[in-house]
Amino acid sequence: xxxxxxxxxxxxxxxAAGHDTIAxxxxxxEQVLAHVPAGTAEDVDAAVRAARAAFPAWAATPPxxxxxxxxxxxxxxxxxxxxxxxxxxxxxxxxxxxxRTVHAGVPVLVAGSYxxxxxxxxxxEKIGNSTVLLEPVGVVGxxxxxxxxxxxxxxxxxxxxxxxxxxxxxxxxxxxLTAQLFAEATHEAGxxxxxxxxxxxxxxxxxxxxxxxxxxxxxxxxxxxxVGRQIGATAGAAVKRVALELGGKSANVILxxxxxxxxxxxxxANVMSNSGQTCSAWTRMLVHRDQYDEAVALAAAxxxxxxxxxxxxxxVNARQRDRVRGYIDKGVAEGARLVAxxxxxxxxxxxxxxxxxxxxxxxxxxxxxxxxxxxxxSVLRYEDEEDALRIANGTVYGLAGxxxxxxxxxxxxxxxxxxxxxxxxxxxxxxxxxxxGGYKQSGVGRELGPHGLSEYLQTKSLQF
Length: 464
Ligand code: NAD
Fold this sequence. Notes:
The protein is α/β, with parallel strands linked by helices. It has helices at 41-60, 63-79, 81-92, 96-120, 151-163, 176-188, 203-212, 225-237, 260-272, 292-303, 318-334, 366-369, 385-392, 408-416, 449-454; strands at residues 6-9, 12-15, 21-25, 32-37, 124-127, 130-136, 139-143, 166-170, 196-198, 218-222, 241-245, 251-254, 284-288, 337-340, 356-361, 376-382, 401-404, 424-425, 443-444, 457-463. It folds into 2 domains: 6-246 and 442-463, Aldehyde Dehydrogenase, Chain A, domain 1; 251-432, Aldehyde Dehydrogenase, Chain A, domain 2. The strands form 5 sheets. A 7-stranded mixed sheet has the order 14-15-16-13-12-17-18, sandwiched between helices. A 6-stranded mixed sheet has the order 9-8-7-10-11-19, sandwiched between helices. The longest helix has 25 residues, at 96-120. It is globular and about 65 Å long.
């Protein structure tokens, strides 16, 4: 695995200001893959200066020309898709098939969508005797997590570029190699010098320096609610724009009229994908009491197909594995019934956790309230639709969810009452243009599609 020993700043790889490095570990075999520099406030400052210097020209570049550069970037991501998939597999541990289709594939869709949007978006509107100009916010500080190492980056950088913003990216410590590959791709695509910059480093050092930098105009953060709260406070104190994509504890609501087997099987697949490390995963399955035992049996059978080391990869690091195992022990201690999996390690090597299903989970249990971020599903029993709604809405989160019913209209009526940012109706397909983001403590702001683009724009009204 090729790693750069510098930062990508102002169109070139430059030595880091300090000498500290971060070891990148393969979660499948626990071997060190590479080292990348641990950036400091000095590196962040150099990157922000480069982004600031590049901003006026990039903001003034006609949208069609910006669109052409984003299209070129998409083409590089296509050309290097296999390398991207292998890199994600090496540092995240996801099975190669998933890395190809999702980790390498989805960013191509998203970059493509912004190449189109940059060209077609209306950066000007008329309201009565006013012309409203939609102008780029400025320099963006992007801070991303490791769970979808390239998608999280592209979901911020592509709309920022489309809007005319310049960017400094601080990727997650666990997956910096994919971010370095992305920096190479921006270079190959011919993005002007300083429009995109990369500083690898630790969250509380490089991440914090970026969030606090006075010349950053907007901080876009995806990660834990705890860090998001801190970044929101910092941005608030500086009166600076902030977008937060945080945690989730989404409900998969199976109404009695639904195709139960399909809803359970798709629900289990949704959580097991990426080893449960998906913020929008439907980790709470809500089933009517009359169908409960059948659903639990179906869930246990479905999860047996997800063999660690085959269809399911390890978790990203030892800390996450221990955290998830801790939650499994907590579920047992709270009185939930383990029907598949458990906290024992399925393999000696690698940060694997057994795909786990809990039955007899009550809404107040920690495993039903807190984000676990691993391959763990809780099956909860509801009495009637009102009870299902109370349970579905009964957490501090509101990122995603699913509703299944015999008739689409019945599912939609329920979905309208859910306090959450995205709902899949009867297994609806992923839409890269649909706004993604949270209600309640799942965040502030939206990513993807035109809503994601508008996050990077500010308005100026001219009166005539
Ligand atoms: P995390 O919050 O620890 O880290 C996310 C990013 O923030 C990393 O780049 C990290 O280095 C950086 N960071 C850490 N401390 C910082 C600080 N003090 N200042 C600035 N930056 C800092 O989260 P994680 O463990 O990497 O990711 C898992 C969490 O992310 C889960 O809770 C998950 O739900 C959430 N997540 C949310 C979404 C979403 O779109 N809503 C997507 C993926 C992950």
